[in-house]
Protein backbone atom coordinates (compact mmCIF):
# COMPACT_ATOMS: atom_id res chain seq x y z
CA UNK A 1 0.00 0.00 0.00
CA UNK A 2 2.84 2.39 0.80
CA UNK A 3 4.25 1.72 -2.65
CA UNK A 4 0.98 2.94 -4.24
CA UNK A 5 1.25 6.38 -2.57
CA UNK A 6 4.86 6.81 -3.61
CA UNK A 7 4.07 6.31 -7.25
CA UNK A 8 0.98 8.66 -7.22
CA UNK A 9 2.14 12.22 -8.08
CA UNK A 10 -1.26 13.81 -8.79
CA UNK A 11 -1.58 15.59 -5.41
CA UNK A 12 1.71 17.38 -5.88
CA UNK A 13 0.63 18.77 -9.27
CA UNK A 14 -2.51 20.45 -7.87
CA UNK A 15 -0.87 21.84 -4.73
CA UNK A 16 0.92 24.89 -6.24
CA UNK A 17 -2.25 26.03 -8.07
CA UNK A 18 -4.27 25.83 -4.85
CA UNK A 19 -1.60 27.79 -2.97
CA UNK A 20 -1.61 30.54 -5.60
CA UNK A 21 -5.41 30.80 -5.53
CA UNK A 22 -5.42 30.89 -1.71
CA UNK A 23 -2.72 33.58 -1.71
CA UNK A 24 -4.59 35.78 -4.23
CA UNK A 25 -7.88 35.46 -2.33
CA UNK A 26 -6.12 36.17 0.98
CA UNK A 27 -4.38 39.29 -0.32
CA UNK A 28 -7.62 40.60 -1.85
CA UNK A 29 -9.53 39.99 1.40
CA UNK A 30 -6.84 41.69 3.47
CA UNK A 31 -6.87 44.69 1.10
CA UNK A 32 -10.63 45.07 1.52
CA UNK A 33 -10.38 44.83 5.33
CA UNK A 34 -7.56 47.39 5.54
CA UNK A 35 -9.53 49.75 3.31
CA UNK A 36 -12.52 49.41 5.64
CA UNK A 37 -10.35 50.12 8.69
CA UNK A 38 -8.86 53.25 7.15
CA UNK A 39 -12.42 54.42 6.39
CA UNK A 40 -13.31 54.17 10.09
CA UNK A 41 -10.92 57.03 10.87
CA UNK A 42 -12.86 59.20 8.40
CA UNK A 43 -16.03 58.61 10.40
CA UNK A 44 -14.42 60.21 13.45
CA UNK A 45 -14.49 63.65 11.81
CA UNK A 46 -17.25 66.18 12.35
CA UNK A 47 -18.63 68.39 9.56
CA UNK A 48 -18.69 72.14 10.24
CA UNK A 49 -21.44 74.50 9.16
CA UNK A 50 -21.44 78.31 9.00
CA UNK A 51 -24.61 80.28 9.68
CA UNK A 52 -24.37 83.91 8.47
CA UNK A 53 -26.62 86.51 10.04
CA UNK A 54 -28.22 88.09 8.12
CA UNK A 55 -27.99 85.87 5.05
CA UNK A 56 -29.80 88.33 2.74
CA UNK A 57 -28.29 91.83 2.45
CA UNK A 58 -28.22 94.89 0.20
CA UNK A 59 -25.10 96.30 -1.46
CA UNK A 60 -23.03 98.59 0.75
CA UNK A 61 -20.82 98.38 3.81
CA UNK A 62 -22.09 96.34 6.77
CA UNK A 63 -21.00 93.96 9.53
CA UNK A 64 -22.12 90.34 9.35
CA UNK A 65 -22.01 87.81 12.16
CA UNK A 66 -21.09 84.20 11.39
CA UNK A 67 -21.70 81.30 13.75
CA UNK A 68 -19.68 78.11 13.20
CA UNK A 69 -21.23 74.93 14.59
CA UNK A 70 -20.44 71.22 14.50
CA UNK A 71 -22.85 68.49 13.35
CA UNK A 72 -24.63 68.59 16.74
CA UNK A 73 -25.08 72.38 16.68
CA UNK A 74 -22.34 73.11 19.27
CA UNK A 75 -20.29 76.29 18.69
CA UNK A 76 -16.71 75.82 17.44
CA UNK A 77 -13.93 78.07 18.73
CA UNK A 78 -10.87 78.93 16.61
CA UNK A 79 -12.35 78.27 13.15
CA UNK A 80 -11.53 80.78 10.41
CA UNK A 81 -14.48 82.12 8.41
CA UNK A 82 -13.64 83.32 4.88
CA UNK A 83 -15.95 85.28 2.55
CA UNK A 84 -15.24 85.38 -1.19
CA UNK A 85 -16.87 86.92 -4.24
CA UNK A 86 -19.38 84.72 -5.98
CA UNK A 87 -21.78 86.28 -8.46
CA UNK A 88 -21.63 89.42 -6.28
CA UNK A 89 -18.39 91.41 -5.96
CA UNK A 90 -16.54 92.36 -2.77
CA UNK A 91 -14.97 95.81 -2.61
CA UNK A 92 -11.78 96.38 -0.65
CA UNK A 93 -8.37 94.75 -0.46
CA UNK A 94 -7.68 91.19 0.57
CA UNK A 95 -10.05 88.41 1.44
CA UNK A 96 -12.35 89.14 4.40
CA UNK A 97 -11.81 86.63 7.21
CA UNK A 98 -12.07 86.30 10.98
CA UNK A 99 -11.56 83.66 13.70
CA UNK A 100 -14.44 82.49 15.86
CA UNK A 101 -14.48 83.25 19.57
CA UNK A 102 -15.38 80.84 22.39
CA UNK A 103 -19.06 81.19 21.43
CA UNK A 104 -18.33 80.12 17.86
CA UNK A 105 -19.07 83.57 16.39
CA UNK A 106 -17.02 85.87 14.18
CA UNK A 107 -17.85 89.32 12.82
CA UNK A 108 -16.66 90.47 9.39
CA UNK A 109 -17.10 93.88 7.73
CA UNK A 110 -18.14 93.48 4.11
CA UNK A 111 -18.86 95.86 1.26
CA UNK A 112 -20.64 93.82 -1.42
CA UNK A 113 -21.54 95.26 -4.80
CA UNK A 114 -23.51 94.00 -7.77
CA UNK A 115 -22.40 94.23 -11.40
CA UNK A 116 -24.33 96.52 -13.73
CA UNK A 117 -27.75 95.20 -14.71
CA UNK A 118 -27.77 92.57 -11.93
CA UNK A 119 -30.58 92.44 -9.42
CA UNK A 120 -28.94 89.89 -7.13
CA UNK A 121 -25.78 87.89 -6.53
CA UNK A 122 -24.11 85.68 -3.94
CA UNK A 123 -21.08 85.76 -1.69
CA UNK A 124 -19.44 82.42 -0.92
CA UNK A 125 -18.71 81.50 2.72
CA UNK A 126 -15.98 78.99 3.60
CA UNK A 127 -14.62 77.86 6.95
CA UNK A 128 -11.19 76.53 7.83
CA UNK A 129 -11.41 74.17 10.83
CA UNK A 130 -9.22 74.84 13.89
CA UNK A 131 -5.73 73.38 13.59
CA UNK A 132 -5.31 69.94 15.09
CA UNK A 133 -9.06 69.30 15.37
CA UNK A 134 -11.17 66.48 13.95
CA UNK A 135 -13.42 68.97 12.12
CA UNK A 136 -13.78 69.13 8.33
CA UNK A 137 -15.66 71.39 5.92
CA UNK A 138 -16.51 69.31 2.87
CA UNK A 139 -20.05 70.42 2.15
CA UNK A 140 -21.05 73.79 0.78
CA UNK A 141 -22.03 76.39 3.39
CA UNK A 142 -24.90 78.88 3.28
CA UNK A 143 -24.14 81.60 0.72
CA UNK A 144 -25.00 85.23 1.39
CA UNK A 145 -27.58 86.63 -1.03
CA UNK A 146 -26.98 90.24 -2.09
CA UNK A 147 -30.18 91.86 -3.41
CA UNK A 148 -30.56 95.28 -5.06
CA UNK A 149 -33.06 97.40 -3.12
From TrEMBL:
Source taxonomy: Archaea, Methanobacteriati, Methanobacteriota, Stenosarchaea group, Halobacteria
Family matches, as Pfam families: DUF7382
Limits of the DUF7382 domain: 43-108
Superkingdom field: Archaea
Coiled-coil regions, chain positions: none
Keywords: Membrane, Transmembrane, Transmembrane helix
Organism the protein comes from: Haloferax profundi
Membrane-crossing residue ranges in chain numbering: 15-37
UniProt name for this protein: Ig domain-containing protein group 1 domain-containing protein
SUPFAM superfamilies: Invasin/intimin cell-adhesion fragments (SSF49373)
Amino acid sequence: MLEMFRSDTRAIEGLPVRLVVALVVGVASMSVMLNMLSGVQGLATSELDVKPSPDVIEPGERDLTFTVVDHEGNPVEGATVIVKSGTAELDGEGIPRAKTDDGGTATISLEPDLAANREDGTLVVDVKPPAGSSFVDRRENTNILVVQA
